Amino acid sequence: MKIIYTLIKLVVLIALLLLAISNTQTVTFSYLPGQSVDVALIVVLLAFFIVGAIFGVFATFGRLLQLRSQVNALQGQLRKEQEINVQLQSEKNALQSANQPVISDTMSSESKK
Questions:
Q1: What's the burial of 11, exposed, middle or buried (CB within 10 Å: 0-12/13-18/19+)?
Q2: Helices and strands counted in the chain (H then E)
Q3: pLDDT for residue 19
């Protein structure tokens, strides 16, 4: 799986490098009415890529928190069930040891005669 992730990262890096090399021309970027700046096209593309990635992270952040709280609740339930299981197992062992017949020394010595 690490190899796949490394290959994906490498492909993205190569694609970004090719994009940067082929888009070096200067463009006018207007960011406020009457305000503009001349920058390389790749800088504008990279800036909007980063902004899009940040919005994507924020879009999934709510779901991440929801899933995290669900995992914590399920882990709490699992711990309770395990504690109950341990308690029942110890009670079962106690009952089994109480029900086993105890052979006294006198009885065992009589059976040997």
A1: exposed
A2: 3, 2
A3: 80
Residue with token string 């406020």? 32
The amino acid occupying position 65 is L
Q: Give the count of beta carbons closer than 10 Å to the beta carbon of residue 29.
A: 15
- What pLDDT, on a 0 to 100 scale, did the predictor assign at position 60? 92
How far are the Cα atoms of 55, 74, 80 from residue 70, in angstroms, in the given order?
24, 6, 16
Q: Average pLDDT by consecutive 10-residue portion of the chain (113 residues)? A: 93 88 88 90 88 93 91 94 92 82 55 52
Cα separation of 87 and 90, whole Å? 5
Give the length of the chain: 113
Instruction: Give, rounded to a whole angstrom, the gap between the first and last alpha carbons of the chain.
Output: 72
